[in-house]
């Protein structure tokens, strides 16, 4: 597990909370939290922390090194997307549409261009480009 990743993840997740405050929220002793900071966060603790602090457990397990990108590549996105709130999904789709419009089309693929031109049948992006996280 990469020390930088789990330390950064823990700081981002818990904010400015002290070790004692974190320990209280997850029902552990402050010495346990100190041990996590010194030696890494166990996978079981990652799920507890995300549940208490409102993080994404899958993203947390990837960032802390317990899961690799190839482990989550085969996730059933169709099943997962139904749990995404509509406003989050709409914002992500709008963000990706903006990115799509900003990219210059490949002239060899004969894509349609111009204002108001949507993607043509040959412009469909591969499934891997529709990940719901920014981690690549």
CATH C-level label of the largest domain: Mainly Alpha
Distance between the termini: 17 Å
CATH topology of the largest domain: 434 Repressor (Amino-terminal Domain)
What does the average pLDDT come to? 75
Tell me the total number of β-strands.
0
Shape: elongated
Helix percent reads 40-55%
Rg, rounded, reads 20 Å
Helix/strand/pairing class, anyone? mainly alpha
- Which stretches are low in confidence, meaning pLDDT under 50 for 5 or more residues running? none
Number of domains: 2
Compute the number of helices.
8
**What is the CATH architecture term of the largest domain?**
Orthogonal Bundle
Strand content: under 5%
| Sheet of most strands | none
List the helices and strands in order.
HHHHHHHH
Describe this structure in words.
- With 136 residues, the protein is mainly alpha-helical.
- It has 8 helices and no strands.
- Helix 2 (19-26) packs across helix 3 (30-39).
- It is elongated, with a radius of gyration of 20 Å.
Output the keywords.
single chain, mainly alpha, elongated, 54% helix, 434 Repressor (Amino-terminal Domain), 2 domains, 8 helices, 136 residues
Short note summarizing the structure:
By secondary structure, this protein is mainly alpha-helical. The protein has eight helices and no strands. The radius of gyration is 20 Å and the shape is elongated.
